[in-house]
Amino acid sequence: MPFLKLPTLKIALRRALGGPHMLGYVPVLTLFSYWAAGEFALYMMAIGLPILLALTGQIPSDKPIFHSESDGLTGLPMRDGLISWADATLPRASKSNREVAVIALVVDDMDDLEERFGRNMRDKVTLETADRIKNLLRDEDVMARLGPGLAIGVSNVRPPETENLLQLSRRIQSVFDAPFSDESTRIYCSMSLGIASECHVKHAEGTDLVVGAQRACELAAMSGPGSVRVFTEGLSSRKPGERDRARELSNALESGEIFAWFQPQVKSLTGAVSGFEALARWDHPDRGLLAPNSFLSDIDKAGLSQRLAEVILKQALTALNAWDAAGFSVPTISVNFSSEELRNPRLPDYVRWELDRHNISPDRLVVEVLESVVAESSEDVISRTLNSLSRIGCRIDLDDFGTGFTSFINIRRFSVGRIKIDRSLVNHVDRDEDQLKMISALLAFSERLGINALAEGVETEGEVATLRDLGCEEIQGYVTARPMSLGETLLWLEENAPPNPKAIKLRRVK
Q1: Co-location of 407 and 328 in the same domain
Q2: How are beta strands 180-182 and 185-187 bridged, if at all?
């Protein structure tokens, strides 16, 4: 009788040993071994049976088994392996009411790194990045090579999923706190990350998670070094025209076509300057100067909100330095931050760094957040970001107040120090009784809470007089000045901010 080939023998053993009936063989085989050959056979049975089961693939593993080609540099599985792992892990996580997520990451400016230090340094950074991150992962998680970067498959993500994944992203980015060294060369790097979890994608499959994480990572890299983006369904349906628009906006931000203009805020009683608000403008090469409402929605769709905020913040702080150097007293500068930016857990650190770099006290920066963001947000990450900014010393303004449904609790939870009454409520307040009652109620509301109030969109001296009589401390609008460039603000301040602040005249700007 010919010998069975090894594969055939393995299949035969698997058929014999596999299945529930195997449970009936174990006691019989154990007793027979002891009866036939004594204790020695019993020991061999105890050792040999698990080995035999392992060889035939009958011992289950908690970690999903997946097959993939390995990356030649890092030895990590490739994209197909990550998708296979996710597909195998999703059903297991679902049974325990957990979620599976993929985090894609890229080292920022890797091409520049290679150009300056050579291919060997690029490979060294990639390898060491993988080694550093491995120390943060659990046994059930996995790392893969994904395009030019890396990716992490995270299993058993507990709620709140987004917040926990953002915290993990912070820990991952912290591995770059230490420099990379190659002989006498020491360099510091940063990384951008994209996150996609089951709660972020429409179809919970491995491919969707990997594609979503990659798309979010691309947008993070476009937004600036060290950015983090969470995938949303709108990111996956980008049409060619929208991609071109996103590329155009990204180029405009980097080339300086999009910049800050400034509108003054003044005291209603004296006309003294209390601050300026930084507002984005786009000097389009073909369409001329564009107001924010013509491109901000496209900025949001392109995932460039964080990059825009960085550009405007830097220019706002530069403007404060310029006003200080010229001898003008401008107490504060206000900068708008969207919900997307406020979800970035690294925002407070970035703001603190920019304030230090410009040598500006934190209490001179006013962070403006829309009332709709506060009213609709149930995310603790936004609350923590705003509270962190407040602890730094920054002031928090609630913008477009009166258009949402903010509760007393939210105003305290988000450390709001001033409300900005929306222009839709301010218009014709001197002639419209309903508007007058509404503004009066909002001012009483702010007074009871012990926070300041500023009226936006003030256009006539009649509105100024009424707001002053109602006790509104600050105003902003065309009655004082239109938004203007930094150079124009210096001329305006020279004319309107003499040593005696009471001399400022409120007037309607044609």
Answers
A1: yes
A2: antiparallel
Centroid of chain to Cα 229? 5
Q: In what order do the strands lie in the sheet with 99-107?
A: 142-146, 149-157, 99-107, 191-197, 228-230
Mean pLDDT (the chain) is: 80
Model pTM above 0.85: no
- Ramachandran category for residue 477: left, alpha or beta (phi over 0 → left; psi -120 to 50 → alpha): left
Cα 415 to chain centroid, rounded: 21
Q: Pick the closest to residue 172 from 205, 123, 213 (CA basis).
A: 213
**CATH for 364:** 3.20.20.450
Residue 177, judged by CB atoms within 10 A of its CB (0-12, 13-18, 19+), counts as exposed
Q: 126-135, 267-276, 306-315, 406-415: which range is least confident on average?
A: 406-415
Q: What average pLDDT does this structure show over 80-95?
A: 84
Domain's final residue, options 210, 237, 264: 237
According to DSSP, residue 77 is labeled: B
Residues 6+ apart with CB under 8 A from 141: 152, 153, 154, 155
Domain of residue 131: give its range: 79-237
Interval 68-97 mean pLDDT: 83
Residue that is last in its domain, among 212, 237, 262: 237
How many other CB atoms are there within 10 angstroms of residue 75's CB atom?
10
Q: What's the CA angle centered on 327, arms 324 and 328, to 5 degrees?
A: 75
* pLDDT tens digits for range 356-377: 999 999 999 999 988 777 665 5
List of residues 6+ apart from 336 with CB closer than 8 A? 277, 278, 279, 309, 312, 368, 369, 370, 399
pLDDT of residue 7: 41
CB 426 within 8 A of CB 463: yes
What secondary structure does DSSP assign to 196-209, as a single string?
EEGGGSSS-SHHHH
Of 159, 158, 167, 188, the C-alpha closest to 103 is 167
pLDDT score at 47: 66
Count of structural domains within the chain: 3
Q: How far, in whole angstroms, is CA 406 from its chain's centroid?
A: 23
Cα of 205 vs its chain's centroid, Å = 23
- Three-class SS state of 56: coil
